[in-house]
Design a protein that fits this description.
Order of helices and strands of chain B: EEEHEEHEHHHHEHEHEEHHHEEH
Number of helices of chain B: 12
Bound molecules: adenosine-5'-triphosphate, adenosine-5'-diphosphate, iron/sulfur cluster, magnesium ion
Strand content of chain B: 15-25%
Number of strands of chain B: 12
Largest interface: A-B, 44 and 42 residues
Strand content of chain A: 15-25%
Largest sheet of chain A: 8 strands, mixed
Number of strands of chain A: 12
Oligomer: heterodimer
Distance between the termini of chain B: 27 Å
Strand order of the largest sheet of chain A: 6-7-8-3-9-10-12-11
Helix content of chain B: 25-40%
Distance between the termini of chain A: 49 Å
Structural class of chain A: alpha/beta
Helix content of chain A: 25-40%
Chain lengths: ~350, ~325
């Protein structure tokens, strides 16, 4: 069964030119999103998750930022090459985004219902009254209690969880094909997070949209994602089916990440850590970007940069020499040397 | 646990912390936020006691009252059996050295124009920890203790990463030889790989220096890892206190159950039956009557709307504030 590809990103590079030099925030990102599926993008702070998502919508502040290479294929059309007018149609209609802190993207002094209605009218020719009714319906869909009343309230009168529901309603206003959610639950309490995750899963089932879910929380990934792209230092280092990733992580970075998670179900003595820290986006090493922290690193890892390569099937990709034929060749050579 | 047999190092006794709100107009009624509303617990030497709960439930306020950053509205806090309310300024300052704090974002509490050396020296001088001549050796010792290079002493806070700044926050807390450290979301802002480093560091400090921790956090996986006992708070009240294993393996308060079940986990074998709570946490300005959890509790009865359940023992190491805890335990 071959799945329909909605969005494919190939070798995306988004760089920032600053007084300190060039920050290679996104530096070779590849991933594939299938219809009706949720793709998680995970990685530690600063690895380029948010810049990746902003690049998809071409919302990178320029200057200082610029997409310097790569393709973003939405139904086979390259967003990188689109003219502003075409882009405007894509945003909201095909691609929508939810941000981590809803307050930054909501106007603080306009009732939320009106803001949603405005968004609807931006994309559809609807009379005011109809748009307002649709806004109220959307608020009901996302489970806001007493939607008629809440629609007339301003953002600050709502709780964090309610504001996130409003953001989701707004993103759904034009039933997008792809919803990009950047840490949509990170600022929320766990019981509220559970509500929002449940809501997103429900809506996906109803509407059949595809979701890119950006988070640093691996538990959340396990909860909602079908596929996962693990990012490190501006690149995807492992692209896997979510179940497989948690069972048999292949990249040494993913392995380290999973081992350093405290377990809520059992007592552990000491947590494993990944020593060292992430390299600076202004100055990546020539070889593997994880080499300085990797317990398996060999000479080749510092001399050459590994590619993101397919293994066994198209759903499994890893950026690490350990999983190449080259590696076995070195191993054999080393075995030859030491008797 | 044997620790509970010792005399407590810190006792929180019927603590209330209310904050008056500004009146919106001359005629509007006077309102108060009941951030912490009559809580009591003991902290025993050498243990790690955690406080968990959702944002706004009163965790940080409890910590601030213990640090005397806020004057309690009512109730008492005793340090080694002495009431801190009765102490004069000078005596209070001595105790302040004994109780230190590590915050979530040490950056916000570090002076940007001070080098790490200056900051640590100043703290040690104020607390009169040791004569100036001996300080140099202590500074180097502290840096190695928290895993930072000695030359970092000459650097400024902005030159460090989040994990390094948290190590500096720990060095500052340790430099005055405290007995109790309050960690308020001390690892919450860190990435998992760095978080694991800091948690390991805190645990080894505790072993080596005989410290007592009050560990405030909303992250229950971290809490399971680091605690001996756990307090669960909801809307300014303690709803459950238990030794770690009882709390995680047989939670008894409906709120604790929901909280534990809501945590997303990567562990396939442990998918719990998720309890999705309805609605939001109510406001602490006009908290619900009776049991404060009744507006969201799936088991609430009419009794819960009127009668406040008191915290009462379930076993020797487990206390809970719910009218029906025993019945729910068996279900
Ligand atoms: N305007 C900018 N100028 C220079 N560098 C930038 C700019 N915006 C982002 N960066 C850098 O790009 C890198 C990736 O940033 P990004 O916001 O994508 O991280 P992230 O993975 O979303 O992290 P977090 O988990 O903290 O949100 C970081 O090193 C960041 O400092
Ligand atoms: N100085 C203050 N004035 C008014 N309200 C406060 C003050 N400090 C805390 N609060 C309120 O008290 C409640 C508990 O706060 P806090 O202890 O910070 O919660 P948390 O459990 O998240 O640490 C919250 O509703 C908060 O808004
Ligand atoms: S390529 Fe080498 S250094 Fe990089 S992750 Fe693989 S083994 Fe480690
Ligand atoms: S006392 Fe009633 S409302 Fe409160 S937790 Fe128990 S069952 Fe629920
Ligand atoms: Mg981000
Ligand atoms: Mg707090």
């Amino acid at each position: 069964m071959s799945k329909e590809v909605v969005l494919q990103v190939k070798n995306l590079k988004t760089h920032f030119t600053t007084s300190k030099g060039i920050a290679k925030a996104v530096d070779g990102v590849d991933f594939t999103l299938h219809k009706g599926e949720t793709l998680g993008i995970v990685g530690e702070s600063g690895c380029g998750k948010s810049i990746t998502s902003l690049s998809l919508l071409r919302l990178i502040p320029s200057p200082p930022g610029k997409i310097v290479a790569g393709e973003i294929l939405l139904n086979n059309k390259d967003i990188v090459k689109m003219k502003e007018e075409e882009l405007r149609k894509v945003r909201g209609n095909q691609l929508s985004m939810i941000f981590q802190e809803p307050m930054t993207s909501l106007n603080p002094i306009i009732p939320v219902g009106e803001q949603i209605a405005e968004t609807i009218r931006l994309h559809q020719r609807l009379p005011r009254k109809k748009a307002w009714q649709k806004a109220v319906d959307l608020l009901e869909l996302v489970g806001l209690p007493s939607p008629e009343k809440r629609a007339k309230q301003e953002p600050f009168q709502l709780s964090g969880g309610m504001r996130q529901r409003v953001m989701i309603a707004m993103a759904l206003a034009c039933t997008p094909e792809v919803l990009i959610a950047d840490e949509p639950t990170t600022a929320l309490d766990v019981t509220i997070q559970a509500q929002i995750l449940e809501l997103m899963k429900d809506l996906q089932r109803q509407i059949g949209m595809s979701i890119i879910f950006i988070t640093h929380d691996l538990g959340v990934v396990a909860e909602v994602c079908d596929q996962v792209a693990v990012m490190y230092a501006g690149q995807v280092v492992e692209h896997r089916n979510a179940k497989d990733l948690f069972k048999t992580p292949l990249h040494p970075y993913t392995q380290g990440l999973l081992r350093s998670l405290p377990n809520i179900y059992e007592n552990q003595q000491e947590l494993q850590t990944i020593e060292g820290s992430v390299p600076s986006p202004y100055d990546y090493p020539v070889g593997c970007r994880f080499a300085d922290r990797c317990p398996h690193a060999r000479e080749i890892c510092r001399a050459e940069a590994p590619d993101l390569l397919e293994m066994n099937n198209a759903e499994t990709k890893v950026r690490c020499f350990m999983h190449t034929e080259k590696w076995e060749a070195i191993e054999e050579k080393e075995e030859l040397v030491c008797p | 646990m044997s620790v509970t047999k010792k005399a407590p190092i810190l006792q929180v006794d019927h603590l209330k912390q209310y904050f008056p709100l500004k009146k919106e107009s001359l005629f509007s009624p006077k309102q108060t936020v009941k951030a912490v509303d009559d809580i009591s617990f003991n902290l025993y030497p050498g243990e790690t006691l955690s406080i968990v709960g959702e944002s706004g439930c009163g965790k940080s306020t409890t910590g601030r009252s213990i640090l005397r950053l806020d004057e309690p509205t009512e109730g008492e806090i005793l340090f080694n059996g002495t009431s801190m309310t009765s102490l004069r300024k000078k005596e209070l300052r001595n105790i302040r050295g004994d109780i230190q704090v590590i915050f979530q974002d040490p950056y916000a509490s570090l002076n940007p124009r001070q080098t790490i050396r200056k900051m640590l020296q100043e703290a040690m001088t104020i607390q009169k920890v040791m004569p100036k001549e001996q300080m140099e050796g202590r500074l180097l010792e502290l840096m190695s203790l928290v895993g930072l290079r000695p030359e970092y002493l000459e650097r400024y806070p902005h030159e460090f990463s989040g994990g390094q700044r948290q190590r500096i926050g720990i060095a500052r807390a340790l430099c005055v030889n405290p007995k109790v450290i309050i960690c308020d979301e001390a690892v919450s802002a860190l990435d998992v790989s760095i978080q694991a480093q800091i948690i390991n560091l805190l645990k080894s400090m505790q072993r080596d220096l005989d410290l007592t921790f009050l560990f405030i956090s909303h992250d229950l996986s971290v809490v399971r890892h680091i605690s001996d006992r756990v307090i669960v708070m909801y809307l300014g009240k303690i709803v459950e206190i238990a030794d770690k294993d009882s709390l995680f393996d047989s939670p008894s308060h409906p709120y604790t159950k929901a909280l534990l079940s809501a945590i997303p986990s990567i562990d396939e074998n442990h998918k719990r039956n998720r309890i999705i709570l309805k609605g939001d946490v109510p406001s602490p300005i006009n908290p619900p009557t009776g049991c404060r959890f009744h507006t969201r509790c799936p088991f609430a009865t009419d009794l819960c709307k009127t009668d406040e359940p008191l915290l009462r023992p379930l076993t020797e190491t487990h206390q809970v504030a719910c009218h029906f805890a025993e019945n729910l335990l068996s279900s």
